[in-house]
Write a structure and sequence with these properties.
alpha+beta, Ubiquitin-like (UB roll), DNA polymerase, domain 1, 2 domains, five-stranded mixed β-sheet, 5 strands
């Protein structure tokens, strides 16, 4: 039995202690913002904060996470208002979006430890691989988030979606079957 705090909530996993934290978060806690990318710690898609430090959750077992504070992308900001999230949108630093949660976590950890990072600091602290190549826009987004966090510059990004987690989880009525078009003959 492994206990930890995930996104400010106590969690107890009844899983093998050698289970990677990634799978406990995704499969047992349904926190699917943490992505499986490579499983070897190379890509950073599975990045989460463990006691405030950005770590690759595919390389951390739940036994190693025992008693620690875990923050996933869902816990960074429930309404997507974290400066890093807003800056990524404002700088259009999101392409396909697969790597974005891991990048946002790594950037948030960087800004927490270094409120005014240089480009070299960013390159060292953000090991994430983005196949879309958003790196120049990512650097601008981190700088913008740093400025917003310090109050030097406001972020004029689109507001976060006005969908609450409760509303997103509501039951959706089943779709009615569509009727066959009368302009084309039926196929046998």
């Amino acid at each position: 039995m492994t206990r930890m705090t995930v996104n400010s909530r106590p969690v107890q996993y009844l899983l093998d202690p050698d289970t990677p934290l990634l799978w406990a978060l995704r499969d047992a806690s349904n926190l699917t913002g943490t992505k499986y990318g490579c499983g070897t710690g190379d890509c950073g898609a599975c990045m989460v904060l463990v006691d405030g430090v950005a770590l690759r959750s595919c390389l951390v077992t739940i036994a190693e996470a025992e008693g620690r504070l875990i923050t996933t992308i869902e816990g960074l900001s429930r309404d997507r208002s974290h400066p890093v999230q807003q800056a990524l949108v404002a700088e259009q630093a999101i392409q396909c979006g697969f790597c974005t949660p891991g990048i946002a976590i790594a950037a948030a950890a960087l800004l927490e430890s270094n409120p005014s990072p240089s480009r070299e600091d960013m390159d060292a602290a953000i090991p994430n691989i983005c196949r879309c190549g958003v790196y120049p826009r990512l650097a601008r987004a981190i700088t913008r988030a740093s400025e917003a966090a310090s109050g030097a510059r406001a972020i004029e990004a689109a507001p976060p979606p006005a969908i609450t987690p409760e509303e997103a989880a509501r039951d959706v009525p089943a779709l009615k079957p569509t009727t066959r078009s009368t302009t084309s003959p039926p196929r046998d």
